[in-house]
Queue: 4 jobs
Job 1
Amino acid sequence: MSARAVAPRRDPVNPFLRVWAVLVYVFLFLPIAIIVIYAFNSGRALIDWSGFGFDGFEQAFRNPLITSAVQTSIIVAIGSALVATILGSLAGIALARRQGRWSAIFLALVFLILVTPEIVDAIALLIWYVRIGGPFGPDSPLPVDYGLARLWAGHSLFSTAVVTLIVRARLIGLDESLEEAGADLYAPPFRRFRQITLPLMLPAVLAAALLSFSLSLDNVIISSFVSAAGNTPWPVVVFSAVRSLLRPEFASMSAALFVLTLVALALVAVVLRRSGSSGAEVTRTLTGA
């Protein structure tokens, strides 16, 4: 008597989960799709669709107010990402490799930064900048404008905490045997860090730097409080335009910045692949998994 093949039972929950996943993706990406579509609106008002065209992009790149604000946002995002990546990476290494009684207190402070409302940070930073002056005042001794110094410090505050946790999570999941082997072979500390620790933590550092860049690029609250005349970031300009008439060129420039973010994401993925990370590792690193 031959045994009949038993057909696998279909799980009635799977179709529901697939539909739910599609709805979640639509909910997340529909606003982005709408802003990209309206970036090609040839009308005078953003919400008044008058036809397809590239007038918004042409006007956006010819408007000195928009181009100056975008340039300021990119400069601020790069500077704050560098500050946050350096400070956060060093803090993450210390938390992962030199744990002690201080670790719990330091982690509590890091999480406190993450949960503090941004409006509280903005008000505190404004008072702090006015009180101490120096590099954050009109008489700044720095070779850059004090408005940029304000934005760099303010934006990197939250990002440093994020970088710290990402780098710490990466290093805690890695075995210290390679670093210990380097020490047994009399490799100096800096050489062990450069040839062993840094390549191991590089995926987390790059992902954290990209996240810091993105967080700074769309920061509105802190930028509104601490920015100075002549250094107004793009989100503040858009927020001010919402109160009157939002024109299509604002959507066009927003779409261009979205493409810039995708390009930065692709560059990080390429660097991670060339550093020896597999496709699955690149995906897990960039998604924080």
Job 2
Amino acid sequence: MALVVVFSTMSFTVDMHYCGDTLVDTSIFEKADTCGMEMQKPTVPEDCNISTKNCCSDKQLIIDGQDELKPSNKKISLSEQIFIAAFTFTYINLFEGLEENAISYKDYVPPLVRTQIYKLDESYLI
């Protein structure tokens, strides 16, 4: 339940860098890396500036989390508490293995073979 609350209230931003129509890099926690083909600022005066269109673009996808949470003050009844405790206990013990390998046939002694049954019934494999 705590994970649901954390993920529903978390906000994050996805940065994307496109070179033309191709997605070059995507980043969630930091700025996306560029492809290295960005337009540089001209070093010549503004009079001799030749304007060209930049092929790269950066986009951001902002995902906002929920801001308003209403805590519930509902009390859990005794029967619900017993159910939760029993369910948790059985679920945790469900995945426990045996402490040692229990061999159930360790003390079993097979009966002694006095006669061979296939000779009595006269059934032979050919």
Job 3
Amino acid sequence: MTDSDSSHPRILPTSEALKGLVDRARAFGQEPVRLRRGEKILSEGETNSSLYILLEGEVELSKREEDGTPRVLDVLGPGSLIGILSFWTGKPSFSDSTAASGIECLRIDLDRFERAVAEDSEFARLTLQLLVANLSDRYRRLAGLNLKVAGLTRELESERNALRKAVTDLQRTRNQLVHKEKLATMGELLAGIAHEINNPSSSLMKSVEQLGRDLPAALGADPEKLRMFEAGRTAPFVSTTESRERMAELQSRYEFLSRGQCRRLARMSPEAFESVETDLRARNAERVEERIRLFEIGSALHSIRVADERITRLVKGLKSYSRQDGGGESDVRVDECIRDTLMVLNHRLKHYNVSVEVPELPTVPGRAGEINQILTNLLANACEATPKGKTIWLRAGVEEGRVWLEVSDEGHGVPEELIERIFEPNVTTKSGGGQYGLGLGLAISRDLALQHQGALRVENRSEGGATFRLELPVR
């Protein structure tokens, strides 16, 4: 054995070290003490002037929570030093120390401990061995606890991410269910409205057709009357400006005519007016009134037919807009979807200058009802963001195998702090002035675009306002 080996202190087993300490303590008059289970050794917050060396049994360390409930921190066995920090530093005890079983311990107060260390090197060496062993053991437990905490933190983070994803998926599913329910309800309402409009319109047109057949026969005996009636049925549209100019001329030439008669004559075509002009020059007011009435009967039938054509287009547009496609994909004409959506939203768009640049577009795979919903949300948002009288642009085209459609407005644009989140649920720019939103329209629109393998983006215009761009893949 070398000199360095012989000078190295020999580490004894814990049981031998404890036995040696007891023998050394007895040499200076200190006997071990026994405590029953449940007896308190140290109390949290109290000062401590003694070191306790546990010889037999177990000691429980606990700390009181805010409500006074004790929480166990650790359980110590033979060889443990109890109260070492409060003993060494003079600070109050950090926790309660209680006998968890019948125990035997060596209690040494500060003065006796300092004398023993100074006078007995073996006592000092054995105490140091236990101290190092205690610190080493506590360090290992602390390191293990840190690793356990780190593992739990990773698990919690993983569970939190999974929960966040589940909440997002649940919210998306909820939005889709709300959207589908709204579409289904709207489809039923529009289909019912279209049906209710179509029935009286058909009855009205049957009556008009009958009048169109019977009146010429009734007027056939008088070619002049029949000519005036037919002139009314085929009369072209006269603008307001042209009508006013004719009224002014008629009032200056035929002062015996009332203002109402001048206004009715001003709507006649030049050919029809020639038939009345002879009676005007003759100042035959009764015959002029008769001819005006015949012209207006024909004109009224013509107006009813034109109105019926508009109603027919409206009914067709409502049926097309509200179709639900049975949940399956089909070839969808985006330009037809645009036309139907513009017709349905005409009551809102008429307050704006709407610029439409939409060529004939190829079909895209999808569900027409859902594409209509995207267009409706984009145009409705543009109306809400744009002051009345300003311009809304609707443009479309084809680029690199994708149909694109842009809705631009002259509104307030999207705030920069929201532009990255504007498609998230519950994010809305409508927060006052009588406008309130749930922030679901754009979120639903983006989800529908993604379901069609497309994309929906937004950017603010340098001139003011925003542009929303929808892209869908061509079949």
Job 4
Amino acid sequence: MKTTTIILLIFLAFTIQSNAQKYITKNGNITFYSDGPLEKIEARNKQVNSALNTETGDFVFKILMKSFVFEKALMQEHFNENYVESDKFPTAMFKGQVTNDVEFSASGTYEVNVEGDLTIHGIKQHIQEKGTFKVSENGIHGTSKFHIVLEDYDISIPGAVTGKIAEEIEITIDVTLKPMKK
């Protein structure tokens, strides 16, 4: 009886381990939007790296700041040189966890709470945000929309454009994570 219990526990451990997977993407999307009084500014980055460990809930994003594309080339130049200083701070990163229970092995749409550290412009801030995961046989599609305050990340707005750029920026995340090949 004792041997049967041990064998059952070992089998269960291997089964649980094999169901836990890591999901990744190298072409996620992040958009930011500034709705300033004089001008609306939007930029999109389609080269977002992201990974999710379904066993632990660990979730990470890494973004190359120079990969944001703007409607106007001058906006893109100012963003990289004057605001986020992309040469000095080339990436932004989120490292955290899904904090609520999600049944990643079952197809469905799940509201998620994500908590962790967001680093932009060399400044790390602890954040808590909500999002959605849609789990299917094709992978996990994740979306979220939240706001950040530029001042929290030591990003200053020069006086000449104070009215053009909002002090709070809307961030939209849209990633489709695929199972990592073993």
